[in-house]
User: What shape does this take?
Amino acid sequence: MKTIKAAIVGASGYSGQELIYLLSRHANVEITHLTSRQYAGKTVGEVFPRLQGLVGGMFVEPNADKIDTDVAFLALPHGVAVEYAPALLRKGIKVLDLSADFRLKSAETYKEFYEHEHPAPDLLKQSVYGLPELHRDKIRGAQLVACPGCYPTSIILGVAPALKKGLGKPDSIIANSLSGVSGAGRKVAEEYLFTECNESARAYGVPKHRHIGEIEQELSLLAGSSVTISFTPHLIPLNRGIISTIYMTLAKKSDDVLAVYRDFYKAELFVRVSASLPDTKNVQMTNFCDISVRVDSRTNRLVVVTAIDNLTKGAAGQAVQCLNIMYDYAEPIGIV
Amino acid sequence: MKTIKAAIVGASGYSGQELIYLLSRHANVEITHLTSRQYAGKTVGEVFPRLQGLVGGMFVEPNADKIDTDVAFLALPHGVAVEYAPALLRKGIKVLDLSADFRLKSAETYKEFYEHEHPAPDLLKQSVYGLPELHRDKIRGAQLVACPGCYPTSIILGVAPALKKGLGKPDSIIANSLSGVSGAGRKVAEEYLFTECNESARAYGVPKHRHIGEIEQELSLLAGSSVTISFTPHLIPLNRGIISTIYMTLAKKSDDVLAVYRDFYKAELFVRVSASLPDTKNVQMTNFCDISVRVDSRTNRLVVVTAIDNLTKGAAGQAVQCLNIMYDYAEPIGIV
Amino acid sequence: MKTIKAAIVGASGYSGQELIYLLSRHANVEITHLTSRQYAGKTVGEVFPRLQGLVGGMFVEPNADKIDTDVAFLALPHGVAVEYAPALLRKGIKVLDLSADFRLKSAETYKEFYEHEHPAPDLLKQSVYGLPELHRDKIRGAQLVACPGCYPTSIILGVAPALKKGLGKPDSIIANSLSGVSGAGRKVAEEYLFTECNESARAYGVPKHRHIGEIEQELSLLAGSSVTISFTPHLIPLNRGIISTIYMTLAKKSDDVLAVYRDFYKAELFVRVSASLPDTKNVQMTNFCDISVRVDSRTNRLVVVTAIDNLTKGAAGQAVQCLNIMYDYAEPIGIV
Amino acid sequence: MKTIKAAIVGASGYSGQELIYLLSRHANVEITHLTSRQYAGKTVGEVFPRLQGLVGGMFVEPNADKIDTDVAFLALPHGVAVEYAPALLRKGIKVLDLSADFRLKSAETYKEFYEHEHPAPDLLKQSVYGLPELHRDKIRGAQLVACPGCYPTSIILGVAPALKKGLGKPDSIIANSLSGVSGAGRKVAEEYLFTECNESARAYGVPKHRHIGEIEQELSLLAGSSVTISFTPHLIPLNRGIISTIYMTLAKKSDDVLAVYRDFYKAELFVRVSASLPDTKNVQMTNFCDISVRVDSRTNRLVVVTAIDNLTKGAAGQAVQCLNIMYDYAEPIGIV
Assistant: This one.
């Protein structure tokens, strides 16, 4: 297999660190370009003591003109990725963006949720939503992949079989999600201090979290009609992990919902459907999405519970999974 | 104010410990009888080093015949409290039971959720559900008070204004709750080991947790019709605290749902309605129930979020609040 | 008992919040003045949702000229307290300072550890080190009390009996301390983010932490000769609590070291000497210092372990204890 | 490279789980035999949901007679490993024991610390202490390797350069260690419940923890004379990780102690000496031992701080490292 050269742009946050770690272990990837405004001039080991002795290399100032790799991962804040992507794409570099900048197909939806005009609406048409379990074929040929957010991954994978197989009513979907604190990135703010998060559990972003846009986009595709959902994220004292508990009214009787889910994902390496309810600790630092499903016959509702690691299947791991698809590498390379 | 004598039966669990602590600080209560099968013969300070130097007294073997107090708190496992209550009641002792044994009015519902016949169905009629915000008057005259469970407290208080004021549709209620690990009591089981709970978040008891019975009983009373709900409890790595996020379809337009909630609880000391979303850390080791409410106009749903401390407002604190009502003490004595 | 008026200057950090909470419950204290540059114009309930419904009052801009209380607590950063104290003292207000500004008797030692000249060296002579167990009589008559740091409290109380009774060699003292993250205050810095502290344990400030100065000052007084110690603080994932494990070479054989410790503290309400090793969870949110002691006959060393809550006995609780002494209130008022 | 067959005996604890995980990823190892009394008949995925889809295989009842592999890892409780080892050794199987049964050279020392006669003292002479950084050559030719305990690994590696290079006085060593709760294994006991460990920090096993025996054995070898140490283990609320802070009186002036440490470990892949103080989060789920060292010129003491993951470098990872040495595999295979 040929080895490709990869750049990681904005590699100093938690997703960036995870990308460095995963790609440094990938048999077919060589990281040749690492950027960080904050850490330019420092080595990976200096910035991330955890990676000392494992990963070499030095951070440089971000500059799209100087990037000359086969592929570039953008681990930049929302709104910044869109500044770097066009120049890279023009050079023929494949771009895997971990921000929200290219996830929405519709510039209007983008404006609704992000409250400003999208600066490069043409690229929205070009980009592919990087959820391999739903869009593997499009990812294979894409030049610009918009990797899904962590909450959306956990919810879309949980709802997809029910909508696709007509088990659940599209207008009844309520997703209640719990996230570890790394979901907020390495943002230095009082609300993310240890003393403010430990022994704390709280909802936030009610009722209109930005991630709703991409979730509804994907669920609408699955349902074949416009889907609107309720979504409540919560912050809980974990480092890494998301649990999404999703409620839907049953559209029809099904003999065995679990069997439908198992069948739907039977070819998927990274989705584990089980009779047991998932637990974040079983997916932490893995690329798995664990799913279980229960029928509540008293209320005629379906309850789906999913668990992922927000930095792996919810960010860096999924990006590497997309990379493997784009380059026809075995899908688990570097992430199992 | 006269001082009363109190017994705590089964005082060796977390709720029992909390009761000892609260009652030892109560200006009008003297703890004169403490029982524990496991710790009989040991002092409070030996069993609970935290209380050393604060609370004296010694545990004795539980024996209803030897209890000769004004009031007895039962902090016993479900199914055991019902063995002790009748003898105490016959002696004229007021009983505040923290177990589930007397919470349900209907022996059939009891059988449905607890899977055996209720051993003393007559007492079900006599007992009063000890949620002061809804049943203060009945608690005042009660001899047997069945203190609500922790999940039920957090959910019923969150739903009550919406049902009572006709804001939410009774058949649309979904309650998604997160609990700290002390909710499982001091049960020594692998699933509650630190290493199994830390960095873990998981749903359990889906879809038919036992607490649903008492929740539906109380919500049906509020709605004036039979209510069936979906309820999913989750275990998260906190010591103490419950967050319940409750979804309801709006029954009508309301100009200001928050104002309705504020008005509903305006006379309640222990319910704090706020525009800000609640956080377990703000109620930990307090008897408060913090509530906030949001309208999701995109889906026409109401989202209510509540927070309590499962051992205080969800157990021992609420029991003391009931005691204060029964004896006409100022309601916050010993719990503020 | 007469009621006094108290000001809390700089009340927006964790120690300040704890002071507000404790003083609001104190039978003989009325908080009449609360300052915070950051929160001026906001109510206590707005700034600290935990205290909503419990404590009224509004923060004002800090201005020593406008303070007209009997007593003022300074919960200001090191170096700032010294700017406020002189004006307050001139007005005859009693000052309890929680910072390090007045803890050292020697201006030279201050310069050695804080690396600048002390701005008001005369006040160092006037101030009393507010550790009641050692300086109760001086505290009683003091106008300026310098409340000890959290690490020093946990170490000095652990070493005092051994030095005073000649059990341990003064030149052999090594103190190894573990602190919860609230010890760093509400400082918004990357190193204190949840994700950086959870699943993390680390030493810091090796080998010359600033607190060594006051520890050595007090230990030298106890030993009657100059004492130099080794001290290593560690940050561990707790909200509140300090464990100090202290090693000393035995100076002589002692029949029963534990008995010596028990005797030394027999009149102290807030020191609990026990054969069992202490645990932070037993002192959390209390003003107790738990101590146990073991002789290691293999190495001829004494091992003392102490536990306190850094915000209570290590800060706000101890300040209230000093207040009670200054005003001849019963020592546990407001802190038990 | 040839592939070897491995058995894991007693694979149901945390060390066993980690061994399964690491060996399943090892390029030259095939796990062909997994035993567990508790889980016989269940698959790896059923017992460890985390490993579902990653590792196949089924647990069988432990029976030394049925083991027919090249190598056997014993992840059994202390006192049980010694029952299995002799039969395996007689068959020519190489044994890597993770228990304490074969770590001590002296049967008398064993009796002193374990309080009973060693059942197979002859094997003590044969066994090699599996700390690669000190005994690589002996490990290479060993048939029975006694893998060190987690505390000993963290302490011996921290002290070795100082003793070997004569920097520290052998009679002055004090080791103060902090361990995550997985160090207690998956033992179901009240003291390890989440609610008893979270917000808790405590010393235990003072003053004579069993691990002292093997630590002193190895330090005495390094010093060339009998060494006696003080050692205090503490339990802190982490899943995985140990910090050891070690104090020694300087034996001589050294221009640059850090340079001595760097030089001592310059050929070691798994020891990272750094000017920065170590943090458990940087070694969690890795086989690294991070070390830093400081001179406290005020007290003439050396302070060494080390960090390891107790389940990796402190148990399973180190065992795999030994395996790699025994079979001449590249040392990092399967553990980087």
Notes: Chain D touches chain C at residues 174, 176, 178, 180, 196, 199-204, 206-208, 228-230, 232, 234, 236-241, 243, 245, 247, 277-281, 284, 294-299, 301, 303, 305, 307 (CB under 8 Å). Residues 150-164 of chain D form the longest helix (15 residues). The radius of gyration of chain D is 19 Å. Chain D has twelve helices and 14 strands.
